[in-house]
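dumping this here so i dont lose it
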């Protein structure tokens, strides 16, 4: 069978569920990064605080505290990048040998699902994990750019180059955080994509569930209320 013949083994509901997951992943990400002005997301609020951090950084002496914060952020990106690598390795192992999945399916349903169907479904998971890995790696690198720019900020707050360079560092910090958040969303939806192994309907349910979870943490969470000063 050709590749197109293999793809034809999936039902229309399968394709609809898979497309729904990808659309939800992209749509939620766009909404988080481009929220309404009257309802900012946590990502937007934290972006403003990252700029404020760099403004305070200019006049802070010593600046060891700031370097420790940035080092912690880079360690976080490195940790999640490593996690994605291990997860991708596990998915690749299952793609190469789908017998464990076929054995579990045989106990649940009497249908004989071809191995290629499992491989296609796992490929979606791997795609999302790979996207997350690339985002985390890039975020780590941009945080590195930010640290270099922070190091170039003159010690004298009155220096005319101090604030412009600090604002450049802030912009780099925000871009790194954006990519880090994109990586996290990819991991969330990769976990949701695993529901496709149970069928298209579970995938649709998981897509809605993950979308609601990600949306609520950006627009209806306690940390957001704290950032807006509604809670202490």
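and the seq i came up w/
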């Amino acid at each position: 069978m050709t590749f197109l013949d293999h793809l034809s083994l999936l039902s229309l509901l399968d394709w609809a569920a898979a497309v729904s997951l990808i659309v939800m992943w992209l749509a939620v990400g766009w909404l988080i990064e481009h929220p309404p002005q009257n309802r900012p997301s946590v990502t937007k609020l934290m972006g403003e605080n990252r700029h404020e951090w760099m403004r305070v950084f200019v006049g802070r002496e010593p600046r060891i505290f700031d370097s420790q914060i940035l080092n912690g952020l880079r360690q976080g990106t490195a940790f999640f990048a490593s996690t994605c690598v291990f997860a991708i390795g596990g998915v690749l192992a299952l793609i190469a040998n789908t017998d464990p999945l076929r054995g579990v399916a045989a106990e649940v349903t009497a249908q004989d699902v071809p191995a290629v169907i499992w491989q296609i479904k796992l490929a979606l998971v791997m795609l999302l994990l790979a996207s997350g890995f690339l985002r985390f790696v890039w975020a780590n690198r941009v945080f590195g750019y930010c640290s270099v720019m922070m190091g170039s900020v003159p010690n004298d707050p009155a220096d005319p180059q101090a604030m412009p360079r600090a604002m450049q560092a802030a912009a780099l910090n925000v871009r790194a955080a954006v990519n880090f958040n994109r990586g996290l969303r990819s991991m969330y939806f990769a976990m949701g994509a695993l529901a496709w192994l149970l069928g298209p309907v579970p995938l649709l349910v998981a897509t809605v569930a993950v979308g609601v979870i990600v949306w609520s943490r950006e627009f209806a969470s306690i940390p957001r209320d704290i950032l807006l000063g509604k809670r202490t």
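The mean pLDDT is 90.
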